[in-house]
TrEMBL record:
Protein name (Swiss-Prot/TrEMBL): ABC transporter ATP-binding protein
Superkingdom assignment: Bacteria
Pfam families according to UniProt: ABC_tran (PF00005)
Taxonomic lineage of the native organism: Bacteria, Pseudomonadati, Pseudomonadota, Alphaproteobacteria, Rhodobacterales
Keyword Iron-sulfur: no
Length: 227
């Protein structure tokens, strides 16, 4: 059997530890994502889902517990190794697109590839292919301010997938869109994820969207449970 793409074991995280204001956010969280599995992370506001995603994405370090990516032990790894793992294995999507405003849609999707050492011509072709898949190929030369909210988020999806990651982490990826646009853009996201066979952990408060994934887990009071 293949190793889980993501494996979190006994993850603990507190803020302001050792002070009267200490807040325990994660309490012994365990989670494993199989190759190609899409899991919804459901949580009320302030429950710690962003913290969990940041730990899974190697942007934050837990107080205790282990993080493994594709069988590789990441806890205790040097910062350089963690940075390379983020670049090569993980794609991030946030509620707000965070596109670079001075660059076109095409350039925003090319940039992470160039940072990974992909030749410019190959990066250009990959970006054009992805933008075409999500229906914004004709808008490739437009800057973010010239795109609608739904178009901007589609470009953000393409940027996250540009380096063909093994794991996609998404934090309320359609949360800033109106319901109709949200459904359309989510369809695009799921199409991309399914077609590439990557694993994904997608945080959402929308149970209708969560039900369209392989399974859902709920984070509440610092603990994770199956929905």
């Amino acid at each position: 059997m293949s190793d889980p793409v993501l494996e979190l074991s006994g993850i603990e995280k507190s803020y302001n530890p050792g002070t009267p204001g200490e807040v325990s956010v994660l309490r012994g969280v365990n989670l494993a994502l199989a190759p190609g599995e899409v899991v919804a992370l459901v949580a009320p506001s302030g429950a710690g889902k962003s913290t969990l995603l940041h730990i899974a994405g190697l942007l934050d370090v837990p107080d205790a517990g282990r993080v493994r990516l594709a069988g590789q032990e990441m806890q205790g790894s040097a910062q350089t190794a963690r940075t390379l793992a983020r670049r090569d294995m993980i794609g991030f999507i946030y509620q707000f697109h965070h596109l670079l405003p001075e660059f076109s849609a095409q350039e925003n999707v090319e940039l992470p590839q160039l940072a990974a050492g992909v030749p410019r011509g190959e990066a250009r072709s990959r970006a054009a292919e992805l933008l075409g898949l999500v229906g914004v190929g004709a808008r490739a030369n437009h800057r973010p301010a010239e795109l609608s909210g739904g178009e901007q988020q589609r470009v953000a999806f393409c940027r996250a997938l540009a380096n063909a990651p093994k794991l996609l982490l998404a934090d309320e990826p359609t949360g800033n869109l109106d319901p109709e646009t949200s459904d359309t853009v989510f369809d695009v996201l799921m199409g991309l994820v399914r077609s590439t066979g990557m694993s994904a952990l997608i945080a959402t408060h929308n149970m209708a969207l969560a039900e369209r994934m392989d399974r859902a887990v709920r984070l509440d009071a610092g603990s994770l449970e199956q929905v």
